[in-house]
């Protein structure tokens, strides 16, 4: 069992959100669904997305998600960026620089691994060109990043 687990507060969509996330991320599974009595409404769920455990609670509309907390997803390929972006923005909204909100209002950062490598380059001009290109994007496009990074 992992020591720290993100705990998400939903109005009444915890099970729906869990199933949505399970449909998007590989190597995912339901860990538990807790109901208020047999056949009663779902109180909480626990699930795993690609090895990361989460818990979610149905607790009413008092609190909403904000960008102050987001989930950063390292993507190895542009195809992975494209697929996750399309699925997570369905019913949600695009943000800048790889950020998005899903249909539940939860913020995600869908970031290709190569972006971190470019931004950490020892050549400050290359890193700056990559940063400047990224700042113009919503969904991160690695081909555009590479062109900016490699060409003065």
Describe the model.
A hairpin with a 4-residue loop joins strand 6 and strand 7. This protein has two domains: 1-63, Roll (2,3-Dihydroxybiphenyl 1,2-Dioxygenase, domain 1), CATH 3.10.180; 65-152, 2,3-Dihydroxybiphenyl 1,2-Dioxygenase, domain 1 (Roll), CATH 3.10.180.10. The protein is built from five helices and eight strands. The radius of gyration is 18 Å and the shape is elongated. The strands form two sheets. It has a four-stranded mixed sheet, with helices on one face. A four-stranded mixed sheet has the order 5-8-7-6. With 152 residues, it is of the alpha/beta class.
Count of DSSP E strands? Answer: 8
Rg: 18 Å
| Shape summary | elongated
The CATH topology name of the largest domain reads 2,3-Dihydroxybiphenyl 1,2-Dioxygenase, domain 1
Task: Summarize the model shown.
This protein is of the alpha/beta class and 152 residues long. It folds into two domains: 1-63, 2,3-Dihydroxybiphenyl 1,2-Dioxygenase, domain 1 (Roll); 65-152, 2,3-Dihydroxybiphenyl 1,2-Dioxygenase, domain 1 (Roll), CATH 3.10.180.10.
